[in-house]
Write a structure and sequence with these properties.
Blueprint lengths: L4 E5 L5 H11 L6 E5 L5 E2 L5 E2 L7 E7 L10 H15 L6 E4 L3 E4 L2 E13 L2 E11 L16 H4 L6 H16 L7 H10 L8 E5 L2 E10 L5 E5 L4 E4 L5 E2 L2
Helix pairs in contact: 2-4, 2-5
């Protein structure tokens, strides 16, 4: 498996912004990865931001060029990138799951996250930027973060970010290669089994109303399918339902 071209910046506002600008100008279709030690204006899903201590975590963006992937199938990229993060962190610890749609969890704590941005032409995806943040060596977090955890907190080891970077890229490229070889139904089924609280009744919040339900799957558009205590199926898009942790 050939790794993408790698770039490193000491400091940048957002690796996704940098990657989007470079991809828009590029005439090459070779994947590339940009990592930084200090992302001072990192973004998360929606209006969220990414907060991390400089030089302590893996923060970067991978640009790929999906071959003939329809825009309507873009959730598969989230599926495979999320699983790659599970593969990577699973090299160091167990009990890793995916909190829908693409947060990385260790037990009930957030270990990392993913922000995906696509350039779409017509019905096809031209290129995709996968923004990745994984807590590695940081042990002190802002109080505004409700439930963070790092690999160093799980196992008291100081990790060499440069050495483990290639392990992450290998996991990403191996998973993303499944786009060409696996059926979407199989990819979604494998992803579902790794979901945080899969088939476990737990409390959720939708429009200020709490209810108990269990995750039973996701549909082709990435919407979460919950079954409540009466057996009724409920389907939610991103930001339409919240976990109560």
């Amino acid at each position: 498996m050939t790794l993408p071209r790698k770039f490193f910046l000491d400091r940048v506002d957002s690796t996704n912004r940098w990657a989007l600008k470079k991809a828009a100008r590029s005439t090459s279709f070779q994947p590339f990865w940009i990592r930084t030690d200090d992302q001072f204006a990192g973004r998360g899903q929606g209006e969220n931001s990414w907060l991390g201590s400089p030089g302590q975590n893996l923060t970067g963006s991978l640009v790929i060029y999906p071959d003939q992937l329809l825009a309507g199938d873009q959730f598969l990229l989230s599926v495979l990138a999320s699983e790659a993060m599970v593969d990577f962190t699973g090299l160091f610890t167990g009990e890793i799951t995916i909190k829908w749609p693409n947060d990385l969890y260790f037990r009930d704590k957030k270990l990392g996250g993913l922000l995906i941005e696509n350039s779409i032409v017509g019905e096809m995806i031209r290129y995709t930027v996968l923004g990745i943040g994984i807590n590695i060596n940081q042990t002190d977090f802002p109080e505004s973060l409700p439930n963070p955890v790092s690999l160093s907190q799980i196992h008291p080891v100081t990790y060499n970010l440069t050495e483990i970077e290639d392990l992450l890229l290998n996991c990403l490229m191996n998973r993303l290669s499944q786009l060409k070889t696996n059926k979407s139904s199989d990819l979604l089924a494998a992803y579902t089994r790794k979901l945080y609280r899969y088939r476990q009744f737990a409390t959720y919040n939708s429009q200020g109303k709490l209810f108990n339900a269990q995750i039973v799957g996701v549909d082709n558009f990435g919407r979460l399918r919950l079954e409540d205590e009466t057996g009724k199926l409920r389907t939610y898009g991103f930001q339409e339902v919240e976990y109560v942790i």
